[in-house]
Design a protein that fits this description.
By secondary structure, the chain is α/β, with parallel strands linked by helices. It is about 40% helix and about 20% strand. The strands form two sheets. It has an eight-stranded parallel beta sheet with strand order 6-7-8-9-10-11-12-13. Strands 1, 2, 3, 4, 5, 14 and 15 form a seven-stranded mixed beta sheet that branches.
Length: about 400
């Protein structure tokens, strides 16, 4: 048992709603605060001096400079397990090349597939572990990581096994997702539906046997899989006992509605969502996950975060960290930029990076500083929580707990 403190401010995120808009005056802020922790759980939060007086024999982990305590961030959509760079794609896009032109020249997702296939398990593990450790330094303690750059039996399993090995060797909470339905791989003999059936019949049973993942994702888009074939696939995935999430409405609207219809945990991207999809998401339990890193990387409009919140949706913010469309991977910077352009309150951003993002991963005991939650915490060297977004990602936590 120990007491952490004292903090100039503890931003507990207590009493905030899972859905809809949030004003900053709804934030619970404990000044001169302390946190009592035992056995990897928060027991009590309150005034630091009062906690020390109440528990005089408990070890005190003293904070010696003005600090703000936040829950650690949750990045609920990443592609952190990959090999190689796609700097050539980025330069070509900025020079005016289209997605199809870049793909025809050897770029795009298939470029990352080839590089990841060629990478040994050991090298892929080291690359992924280094990236995860960097996330932790930036206050991100829960990270979803997808497969999807293997696209055959050997390499999809390689990726998911690497992700599990990283999970066992870091203090981050890693959640793996099978994204074998990223695109149909070149060289596969058969239709899109044939490939999806191969995943169902050959790959997913092995993933379940090895307990490599309990989540399945699919990219629904003109360049990947259409709504009809995706619906059949996802229904069968659910029948196998997996949770589902969807790459939805990135360039074409409509798939977010399918995500809600099938009870997906989240619909991610949403840059192309219209009023129809916004309303459907708002009236559901499916989390709307927006990915500002992809908009920045591709030079595309941001997802309609403000409209989603005002309609009543549960909005999470994730990095989409990947070598192609979102190579920055800096979640706090992306969230701060999104807030500027979409006029999101600080409370909405913090909720979207913490307990609302944990809902997208179906985790219920992280993302707030309240009793019986895990003490996944981060500390910033400032005395006003508003400084964190004000510096647009330049101010990083100096300590994680």
């Amino acid at each position: 048992m120990k007491i952490l403190g004292s903090f100039a401010q503890i931003i507990t995120l207590n009493h905030l709603s899972l859905k809809g808009a949030i004003k900053d005056n709804a934030l619970e802020i404990i000044e001169n605060g302390g946190v009592l922790i035992e056995n990897d759980l928060i027991l009590e939060v309150g005034n630091f001096e009062a906690l020390v007086k109440k528990y005089p024999k408990v070890l005190v982990d003293e904070v010696t400079k003005p600090s703000v305590l936040l829950p650690s961030f949750v990045d609920c959509h990443t592609h952190t397990c990959f090999a190689g760079s796609r700097a050539n794609d980025f330069a070509a896009r900025n020079a005016g090349k289209t997605y199809l032109e870049i793909a025809a020249a050897g770029g795009g997702i298939w470029s990352s597939v080839q590089k990841t296939r060629a990478c040994s398990s050991e090298n892929l593990y080291n690359l992924t572990l280094d990236r995860v450790n960097q996330f932790v330094k930036e206050g991100i303690k829960t990270i979803e990581i997808k497969s999807g750059y293997g696209l055959d039996l050997e390499n999809e399993l390689k990726m998911l096994r690497v992700i599990q090995r990283v999970k066992a060797n870091t203090n981050a909470n890693i959640i793996s997702t099978c994204l074998a339905a990223h695109i149909k791989p070149k060289g596969f003999e058969g239709t899109n539906s044939d490939y999806l059936n191969w995943i169902l019949n050959e790959l997913l049973p092995l993933i379940k046997t090895e307990a490599l993942s309990h989540r399945v994702d699919i990219f629904i888009e003109k360049s990947a899989f259409d709504i009809a074939e995706s619906k059949l696939y996802l229904q069968k995935v659910k029948d196998l006992g997996f949770d589902i999430t969807v790459h939805a409405d990135q360039f074409t609207a409509g798939s977010a509605t399918l995500a809600v219809e099938l009870g997906a945990l989240s619909a991610d991207h949403l840059e192309a969502s219209t009023e129809k999809e916004i309303e459907v998401l708002a009236n559901s339990e499916t989390v709307a996950v927006v990915l500002p890193g992809a908009s920045i990387g591709l030079g595309e409009p941001f997802a309609p975060a403000r409209k989603l919140l005002d309609a009543g949706a549960c909005l999470a913010i994730a990095s989409d960290y990947n070598p192609g469309s979102a190579p920055m991977g800096d979640l706090l910077t992306q969230a701060a930029i999104l807030a500027t352009y979409q006029k999101l309150s600080t409370a909405e951003v913090l909720a979207g990076l913490t307990f609302r993002a944990s809902k997208a991963l179906n985790i219920n005991n992280i993302g707030k500083i309240i009793p019986n939650y895990k003490p996944d915490l981060q500390v910033y060297a400032c005395d006003d929580y508003r400084e964190i977004l004000y510096h647009q990602g330049k101010l990083k936590p100096y300590k994680t707990v």
